[in-house]
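Q: what sequence does this backbone want?
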């Protein structure tokens, strides 16, 4: 084999482990989890497949404080989410009563990470809504204990009775002749709502396009500094998070803007090098024509200062000087200039 006998670096080993846990998580959740599908369809997988998540050990069990660190949140958040969705998270329980301890494998930790990202302040879902998505409209999965199984059966009975009452109301509505009128009214309302939504989305798309173009023009402008251009680049990521439907267009502009910033940096460095070279040669020429040793010493100090301030150009400075002036004078000049 090509890799036989090869010694892998620590970074390569860690990267291979992360790729392994990524594959395990995708295999466990892709096409199997409604929460995972939400992230996948919205292009948010990078929010849950974080570096800390991918650094988990598939054989390890994590306590709450470790889960909080992996999920980048507080301990109490982990405990609250676990309490409300205990059956779904399904941690390993050790001990009883006040001494009960929950430990979580990588599957349980990843479930908590998904839950945290979809609930809480500013999120799209509440915990009850998430329960509805996870457990469906009838009942949640029965837990191991008889008590919880009984509660689940009670939930099922309550849902069946509720659906029977709803059917009675539906039957009365058909008999009264109002059923088809209700369908027509709802269809009209839905059509109007859809039209308004499309109009709002169209306006928003136009506004986002204007923002994208404005950002790119500012980055491309000659009167903005490199630091300002890099700050403007970050706004592309903010726009992408707020407008996932236009992620492709935003990324396209962002990539083009990053290329322009790289070019600006290269041009700026080349200009800087050109100015340094011009100043070096100017000082060398002055040194050659200096009338006194004091004047030459002053020039040597200036050249040494330039060399210290531009350590990355140390080799270039020596080269520029080596190609200027007479051989005899140059030898003594180098000895004094670079001896310190």
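A:
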């Amino acid at each position: 084999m090509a890799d036989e006998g090869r010694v892998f670096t620590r970074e390569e080993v860690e990267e291979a482990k992360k790729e392994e846990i990524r594959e395990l998580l995708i295999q466990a959740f892709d096409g199997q989890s409604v929460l995972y599908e939400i992230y996948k369809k919205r292009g948010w997988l990078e929010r849950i497949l974080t570096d800390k998540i991918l650094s988990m050990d598939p054989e390890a069990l994590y306590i709450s404080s470790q889960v909080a660190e992996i999920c980048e949140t507080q301990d109490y958040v982990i405990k609250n989410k676990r309490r409300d969705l205990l059956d779904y998270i399904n941690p390993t329980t050790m001990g009883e009563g006040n001494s009960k301890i929950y430990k979580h494998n990588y599957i349980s930790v990843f479930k908590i990470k998904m839950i945290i990202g979809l609930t809480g302040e500013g999120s799209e879902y509440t915990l009850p809504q998430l329960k509805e998505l996870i457990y469906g409209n009838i009942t949640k999965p029965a837990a191991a204990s008889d008590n919880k199984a009984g509660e689940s059966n009670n939930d099922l009975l309550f849902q069946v009775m509720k659906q029977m009452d709803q059917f009675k109301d539906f039957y009365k509505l058909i008999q009264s002749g109002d059923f088809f009128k209700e369908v027509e009214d709802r269809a009209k309302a839905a059509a109007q709502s859809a039209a308004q939504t499309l109009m709002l989305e169209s306006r928003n798309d136009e506004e986002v396009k204007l923002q994208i173009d404005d950002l790119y023009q500012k980055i491309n402008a000659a009167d903005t500094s490199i630091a300002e251009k890099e700050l403007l680049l970050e706004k592309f990521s903010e726009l992408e998070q707020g407008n996932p439907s236009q992620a492709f267009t935003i990324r396209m502009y962002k990539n083009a803007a990053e290329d322009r910033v790289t070019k600006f940096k290269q041009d700026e460095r080349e200009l800087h090098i050109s100015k340094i070279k011009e100043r070096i040669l100017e000082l060398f020429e002055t040194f050659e024509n200096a009338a006194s040793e004091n004047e030459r010493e002053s020039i040597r100090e200036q050249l040494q200062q330039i060399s210290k301030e531009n350590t990355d150009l140390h080799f270039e400075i020596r080269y520029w000087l080596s190609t200027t002036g007479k051989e005899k004078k140059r030898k003594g000049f180098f000895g004094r200039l670079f001896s310190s």
